[in-house]
Amino acid sequence: MKFRVLGCSGGIGARARTTSFIVDEDILIDAGTGVEDLSIDELARIDHVFLTHSHLDHIAALPLLVDSVGGLRSKPIKVHALPETIAALRAHIFNWTIWPDFTEIPHYERPWMVFEPLAVGSVVEVNGRFVRSLAASHTVPALAFHLYTDDGAIVFSGDTGPNDEFWRQVNGVQKLRYLIIETAFSNREQDLAVTARHLYPIQLGEELAKLQRETEILITHLKPSDKATIEKEVHAWAGRHSPRILERGDEFEI
């Protein structure tokens, strides 16, 4: 299982792309602006999209993805998400005002896109690779994801604030190779982080203290306007851990 970072920024700017990861060639984890760097052939090979939540930086490229390659495919793209996320996409994006509803195009019996509801604990198998939904704590209903094969696992926190249930689940993961966890704000913006239910470096250290597994820690979702400060503070507050800041283009193999 190959895992490639298309976008891992908390905003846009030169070379900054918002959250999106591609697994092998056919699974997309979130659909932020990083998806837009893929070629048409690469886009057309995506069969499954797993969404952590409905915020724009995680779904921005989804409408254009379906529009760009739906007609090239022999089967619909499956979008896996919480029912609340699906409802938000239907109401605010695929509503014929902002964008066409591709669950009805070219015909409701042969659409370019279908929604597949998830719940915490759901497991979806895609050709020997498994995606399990974990609990997240954000301002809207949200998920984290545990991706695994027989050879190992990756956990992605999605957008989340402090969350004991997430750590309970993570500590039960076997062969955990990588933990991708967000830290969006610097310590001086901790009030904003708490309101937005994102982590800041002091809080990241408190959360990582709950981790009972030995694994590589990868930090994502830094706000580009404050990236250098957040990086320094992450390393200062990470405790016994030595996190690495995730970068666009990074690749991991399990």
CATH classification class: Alpha Beta
Summarize the amount of helix as a percent range.
10-25%
What low-confidence regions span 5 or more consecutive residues with pLDDT below 50?
none
Largest beta-sheet details: 7 strands, mixed
CATH topology, what is it called? Metallo-beta-lactamase, Chain A
The CATH homologous superfamily is called Ribonuclease Z/Hydroxyacylglutathione hydrolase-like
Number of helices: 8
In quaternary terms, these chains amount to single chain
Radius of gyration: 17 Å
Strand content: 25-35%
Number of self-contained structural domains: 1
Order of helices and strands: EEEHEHHEHEEEEEHEHHEHEE
The secondary-structure class comes to alpha/beta
Kindly report the spatial arrangement of strands forming the biggest sheet.
6-5-4-3-2-1-14
Q: Number of DSSP strands?
A: 14
Give average pLDDT, whole number: 97
Outline:
globular
N-to-C span: 5 Å
Blueprint (SSEs and pairs):
Elements: E1 2-7, E2 20-23, E3 27-29, H1 40-44, E4 48-50, H2 56-59, H3 62-69, E5 77-81, H4 83-92, E6 113-117, E7 123-126, E8 129-135, E9 143-149, E10 152-156, H5 164-170, E11 176-182, H6 190-196, H7 201-208, E12 216-220, H8 227-237, E13 244-245, E14 251-253
Parallel strand pairs: 3-4, 4-5, 5-6, 10-11, 11-12, 12-13
Antiparallel strand pairs: 1-2, 1-14, 2-3, 7-8, 8-9, 9-10
Helix pairs in contact: 7-8
